[in-house]
Amino acid sequence: MGGRPTPDMNDIFGDIIGTIFGGGKARGARRGADIDYVMELDLEEAVGGVEKRIVIPSLAECDTCNGSGSEDGKVETCASCQGHGQVRFQRGIFAMQQAWPECGGRGQVVRNACRKCHGQGRVEDEQVVSVKMEPAGVDSGDRIRLNGEGEAGAPGTPPGDLYVEVRVREHDIFGRDGDDLHCEVPIRISQAALGDTVNVPTLGGEAEIRMPAESQTGKTFRLRGNGVRSVRSRAPRDLYCRVVVERPVNLSAEQRELLESTP
Please, what sign has the CA dihedral across residues 115, 121, 123, 126? Predict the structure, then answer.
């Protein structure tokens, strides 16, 4: 349903206080826009940490006018707002202020606009950013903020920030639950019945576990310290290996009879 927009009381009182004390919230030109970027990582990269260079489309500072928007680099103080970038007006009993439209709230105007950026001080470009994933152990949904790596702002304003969101690809062997890892370990029926030493995968290589006799599918072994190093505590978590007893196929009649006779 339509209706009047709800006023922001913080904005209203900010204007009132600004009028009383001669300051208040700046309503001039804002800084550059923030950029959101999704970075996909392999599990090994997320767990061990990695540094990657990414290319993002963005608004960059014009290299012809160095972001001033002026062909000759000269800017003038806005005569209408005397360089304040704001205009005050009365709304009922309250004195309000907003960005002056002629200068866009910057307090400066460009008479000789740059031919490349047309006086905007910014141009469409691609930006190469080096992103270091640290501390190691990030997971899907984690976000990293890089200050000042967003889009360039209007002349005289700071750039925005770059937010990189992590997405970890599914792994062929390991599943992740928080900072714990899980995997399945297939064994032959003879190993399950008689017991054996079995090699199991870890992110750092192979490890050995002793499989006791009469092991069943679902039996789980815990390898301490072979999980993900926690971002918060920096302590490594654990790897849980779940046994899966493989069913034999293409059995001979003698083998089938032997298995059926085994209690």
Answer: positive
Q: Is residue 262 part of a domain?
A: no
Tokens of 191: 């190993």
Chosen domain end from 108, 137, 168: 168
Give residue 222's domain range: 175-250
Of 128, 147, 168, the position where a domain reaches its end is 168
- Per-residue pLDDT tens digits for 13-42: 444 344 444 444 334 457 889 999 999 999
pLDDT at 199: 95
Section 5-15 average pLDDT: 41
- The 10 Å CB-count burial string (b at 16+, else e) for 157-176 is bebbbbbbebebeebeebeb
Q: In this structure, are 184 and 140 located in the same domain?
A: no
Task: Tell me the longest C-alpha to C-alpha distance in the chain.
Answer: 102
Transcribe 57-117 into DSSP letters.
EEEEE-TTTTTS-BTTS--EE-TTTTT--EEEEEETTEEEEEE-TTTTTSSEE-SSB-TTT
**pLDDT (tens digit, 9 = 90+) per residue, 137-191?**
999 999 999 999 998 887 778 899 999 999 999 999 999 999 999 999 999 988 9
Which pTM value belongs to this model? 0.66
Distance separating alpha carbons of residues 31 and 152, to the nearest angstrom: 8
d(CA 199, CA 173) in angstroms, rounded, equals 14
